[in-house]
Amino acid sequence: MYKHSVISLLLVVASFAPLNAASEAPKDSSSIGELRVRLQDAVRIGLEKSRTLELARLERRMSSEKLMEATSAVLPQITSSFTYTRTLEPSVLFLPNTPPFSGPLEISSDNSAKATLDVRQSLFNGSAYASIRAAATAGKMSDEAYRNAESAVLSDISLAYYDALISRDQLKLVEESIARWEESRKDTQAMFRQGVVADIDTLKAFLSVENLRPDLIQAETRVNATMTRLKNTMGVSLETPLVLLDTLSVALRAYPGTLPAAWQEAMEKRPDIRQLELQVKAEKDKITAVRAERFPQLTAFGQLESQTAFNDDVELSDSGWPVSSGVGVQVSLPVFTGYRISSRVQQAKISRFQTMTRLEDLRANAMAEIELRLSAWREAEKRIEVQSSTIAMAQRGYRISLLRFREGVGSRLELTDSELQLNKARTNYLQAVYDCLVAGVLLDRSLGRFPSERTAE
Fold first, then answer.
1. Could you tell me which residues come within 8 angstroms of residue 363 by beta carbon, excluding any fewer than 6 positions away?
2. How far is it, in rounded angstroms, from Cα 158 to Cα 409?
3. I want to staple 128 with a disulfide (CB 3.0 to 4.6 A). Which of 34, 73, 301, 347 is the partner?
4. Does the pLDDT of residue 455 top 50, yes or no?
């Protein structure tokens, strides 16, 4: 009896288990795959998955290996070799056929072997030393290239994030405008039933709502497009639901007060300028390396050699392995190379002049870029200050016009104008905040700073 009771209890519990699982399944599935990010989260994910940064990292490794390759020219070079020879036809020495000689004499053994160990050490090689300096400079260039790529990725993600934020807020403005007109339409219909307004007023109220539908569709399309670009920039799947946790707001930022101060900061921090400056230095080292080919090269060498020869009727262990060794110094000096070295020196000089010209061009473009972006940032800040007070006045004007319209004192034209002014004030403020954030990101890039995570909680 007890056994049957236990079985019955288990069956009841089992019957409720699927119900519980089914009730919990929608909750779990709804949260799977959703990615909720702030700007700093988007930047972190983008840095982890950026292919551009991966290429820059590989380039740094390549530069490190090239430096090792250049250093190998001044390190000892040790070479070993072993040679075994099987004689198929013996070598002979022809002697006079007179006593005590009796014709050709075989002088080779059936088997022969030789083991050699060669050691060479460069004592002086001016070209190699200059090449090492150039390779070390190239390594620093790859570090600056990585910083430049990292700054570009950070800027791209920040701009894409701000694009997604403003498109989301613009959609919200359109939805709020439609909601206000819907409320106004309901008020108009109620007033029409009371005989306060004419039928044409209800038609105008209806058209005011419907004319905003295309704007709503365009705003929704922009949201989808900007979210797609943000996902692609971050390196996440386009199927991943993305939720942005930040809002468009401007934090206090400190920038140089004068153009010369901004220019000085950019010259010290911008990785692209630093990269070209290092390239000029590397080109100078290359000129030195090519010129050094005219100088003598001094190399010390040593050799250790052991060899043997024996016939088939002799055991290998019974054969002798005499050892010989020697050391020496080798000096090589090019006398005439057919103007090859002179031509290479001129090529290296021309290449350096080209790099110096590109550097001057980059500096000039950077100065103009900084001036324009600093001006754009200051303009956006002033627009924010102006629009902040404009929104408050536009909201107050709309409330007054709506109240007057409901009381039958104001006209629909007055209400429409107040709605347009409010919507324009909000749109202008939103655009000013967005422009200020974008100008800050671009100005950070121009100054060689990394974009800051300027978001509001």
1. 267, 273
2. 49
3. 73
4. no
